Amino acid sequence: MTTARDRWLDEGLRTLATEGAAGVRIDRIAARLGLSKGSFHHHFAGAEGYKRDLLARYEALSVDAVESAVAAAGVDASTRDVLQVLTARVGADHAALFRPELDVAVRAWSATDGEVRAVQQRIDTARIDALTRVWQRVVPDPVEARRAATLPYLVAVGAAMVVPPTDANELRALYELLLGLVPGSS
After folding, report:
1. What is the CATH number of the domain that holds 146?
2. In a domain, 184, yes or no
3. Which of the listed residues 40, 59, 135, 164 has the most CB atoms within 10 Å of its CB?
4. CA Rg, the chain, in Å?
5. pLDDT at 89
6. Among 91, 84, 75, which Cα is nearest to 152's?
7. CA distances from 62 to 4, 100, 105, 137 (A)
8. Cβ 87 vs Cβ 179: under 8 Å
């Protein structure tokens, strides 16, 4: 069951993705949801509390998407198998893994807001750390494993940042090209 609090946060993320940080206005979100400002104040400690909770929701979704894809491959899966699961999840069925409009909006917001920048840094670090653990299975040097993990991550960030953003099908095709670079691939 979706609570009113969840609706506020979900609509805030949708608004952020479509209108940027300037569009995240409580009165406009309340009108779209058909909820009162009283409902907002019941669930959040003002605009700053909402911002913190919105960023926490975005961070959790962003990190969980990568972690759950890695876990779905299984603990004994090869690096290639894990990367194939991640590649297969780039698309509409797994939108939390690649949400270019939301990614661009949060990165733009992070340029002017230190709190948002800290959240984005934690997300980037957590995602690259998860991918590094996958790569360490075939690349024993930790520095090289991190580089191997960073390359596909930068492809995803770049795919979101180009105008217009690369669509999920094209990004998936790019990742399939990169799969051939995985040690032990044929």
Report:
1. 1.10.357
2. no
3. 135
4. 18
5. 83
6. 84
7. 22, 12, 14, 23
8. yes
Residue 2 lies in a domain: no
Q: Does residue 129 register a pLDDT over 90?
A: yes
Please tell me the predicted confidence (pLDDT) of residue 151. 94
Q: How many domains does the chain have?
A: 1
Asked if the structure places residue 155 within a domain, the reply is: yes
The separation between CA 120 and the C-alpha centre of its own chain, rounded to angstroms, equals 9
> How many of the other CB atoms lie within 10 Å of CB of 32?
12
d(CA 59, CA 16): 14
pLDDT over 90, % of the chain: 72
Confidence (pLDDT) at 69: 87
Helices 79-88, 46-73: crossing angle, 10 deg rounding? 130
Q: Which residues of 128-151 are buried (b: 16+ CB within 10 A; e: fewer)?
A: bebbbebbbbebeeeeebbebbbe
pLDDT at 185 over 80: no
pTM for this prediction: 0.91
What is the rounded average pLDDT of the residues 89-106? 79
Residue 107's domain comprises 47-179
* Cα-based distances in Å from 38 to 6, 13, 44, 57, 96: 15, 20, 10, 21, 30
- What are 83-92's pLDDT values in tens digits? 988 888 887 5
